[in-house]
Specification:
This protein is an alpha/beta fold. The chain is built from 14 helices and 5 strands. The protein starts with 14 loop residues before the first helix and ends in a 5-residue tail after the last helix.
């Protein structure tokens, strides 16, 4: 393989998974439905795009070669036989209109190989999932549908059962950290990886979204809060200004996990704080219209001094 299509290069921890996929492709036609599942932030979409490049590549070998017309079109984002289906910007759901567009486009070009990557697949609403199921049951011509999912259990069982499943493992921490340290300084890389639960692409996105200074301030404020050296109301105000509740909860959980590793906190207080963070995360995800300031202030007051 002389080159790779932009955005489809293998990440270091994907070599083993790609070997299995390559063997599958070389053995014959790929399945109509392929479900790539594993933790978020490890590159499943990128892997899906690489599979699409291999299927559509017109060059020699198992592809993508990076040199043929098909690979150039993929690299430019203008290949007529490749489609990405994902939520719109700022949206959390894939609507039925996106799936209908996929069906219409693929029906019109049924004689050619076509590939769609749907990610995250569990974001399809009920109507979209039902429409997609009909397409999976009666695929038009030479079509391949690659579903990338962080939570395959949230997909309808009927969709899962019609796909070939392939687990995509997360990288070991050392491997993820080595890669991330090529993008950020070592101290920041470790912090980002802690905040993203070991998912390197999620860590990189987090760093790009918030910046080193804001993340360092969050870490310092959270540590001071747990040490009993910061005013909880002031810390809660800083959390709110950050504008990312998921990040705040991840930072607090990572700091508590660090206390547990060091064994420097009373176990009962530590476990109570962890339970509090978990319960707050559940509320954040499930209860609409929460008063953020009250939520942050209550959490900060209850966790203050956990390490003291």
């Amino acid at each position: 393989m002389n080159a790779v299509v932009a955005g489809t290069g293998l990440l270091p921890w994907q070599e083993g998974t790609w070997s299995r996929i390559e063997a599958m492709l070389e053995a014959g036609r790929p399945p109509h439905g392929l479900l790539l599942h594993g933790p978020g932030g490890i590159g499943k979409r990128r892997l899906g795009a690489r599979i699409a490049g291999a299927i559509l590549c017109g060059g020699p070998g198992s592809g993508p070669c990076g040199a043929c017309r098909s690979c150039h079109l993929l690299g430019a984002g203008s290949h007529p036989d490749f489609l990405r289906i994902e939520p719109g910007e700022g949206e959390a759901v894939i609507p039925i209109g996106s799936v209908r567009n996929l069906i219409d486009r693929f029906t019109l070009t049924a004689e050619r190989a076509r590939v769609a990557v749907i990610a995250p697949a569990e974001a399809m609403n009920q109507a979209a999932a039902n429409a997609f199921l009909k397409t999976l049951e009666e695929p038009a011509g030479n079509a391949t549908f690659i579903l990338a999912s962080d939570a395959p259990g949230r997909l309808p069982a009927t969709v899962r059962s019609r796909c070939r499943k392939m687990a995509v493992p997360a990288p070991a921490r050392g491997e993820a950290l080595a890669w991330l340290e090529t993008k950020a300084n070592p101290a920041l890389a470790r912090h980002l990886l802690d905040l993203s639960d070991g998912s390197p692409l999620a860590a990189l996105e987090l760093g790009e979204r918030h910046g080193e200074e804001a993340l360092a301030a969050l870490r310092a404020d959270t540590a001071a809060l747990l040490d009993g050296a910061a005013d909880p109301i002031e810390v809660a105000g800083g959390w709110r200004k950050l504008g990312d509740g998921g990040l705040v909860l991840s930072a607090l959980f990572a700091a508590l996990r660090n206390l547990a590793r060091r064994g420097v906190a009373d176990p009962d207080r530590l476990y109570a704080a962890v339970d509090d963070v978990v319960d707050t995360r559940r509320q954040w995800l499930e209860v609409p219209g929460l008063n953020e300031q009250l939520l942050y202030e209550g959490l900060a007051l209850r966790c203050a001094g956990t390490a003291a």
